[in-house]
Amino acid sequence: QPIEVGKKSAAWKAVDHHVMDNFIVGVGSGSTAVYAMERLALRVKEEGLKILCVPTSFQSRQIVKQLGLSLTDLEEHPQVDVAIDGADEVDYNMTLIKGGGGCLTQEKIVSSCSQNFIVIADHRKDSKELGQNWTKGIPIEVIPMAFVPVQRRLEKLGGTPVLRMAIAKAGPVITDNGNFIIDWKFSEVREWTVINQTIKMIPVFRQNRT
Ligand code: DER
């Protein structure tokens, strides 16, 4: 499977190039991040690499434990040396779409606490403009009680905000943080920094009218 070979070799190179002894390492979620965690475990075994891993989801925490890597968290280590993660799409500007696996919030928090953020993305994720290859929309995690007001605010920005429904469970996907995900399907290319700021400003609680 050439794609898996590509993902694995990119993940191994990222780990070999960016992870040093005594590092606090943010470990991402999804299938590409698994290759990175496997490489970390191999280096610990073969070189005696000393690292502590901050997981970014239930999935990555489970894999850290299965591989015998040492776990830590942002309470113990709020400063992370490098975060290594996958992505769903990357444009020419290195703007990412993340959250296809529903783990975007903890991933973003850990990467924001990190000196260095390494994204491993095979050629399928490479797009000139966001939305070219990843057509499922921009994942936005919302507090359940606010999903309709947030949908309405997103509709005003254009595009179609869709509540992500679960497959192996009736009803919507519930994230590791107990929230919903809205996939915001947009039509035309946007000024993503402006959009990112605008989305962040959407109050997930209705403000009292003053
Ligand atoms: O949820 C995410 O952002 C993940 O990093 C993700 O969707 C990438 O997954 P993959 O490595 O399995 O393609």
TrEMBL record:
<comment type="similarity">
    <text>Belongs to the ribose 5-phosphate isomerase family.</text>
</comment>
<keyword id="KW-0413">Isomerase</keyword>
<protein>
    <recommendedName>
        <fullName>ribose-5-phosphate isomerase</fullName>
        <ecNumber>5.3.1.6</ecNumber>
    </recommendedName>
</protein>
<comment type="pathway">
    <text>Carbohydrate degradation; pentose phosphate pathway; D-ribose 5-phosphate from D-ribulose 5-phosphate (non-oxidative stage): step 1/1.</text>
</comment>
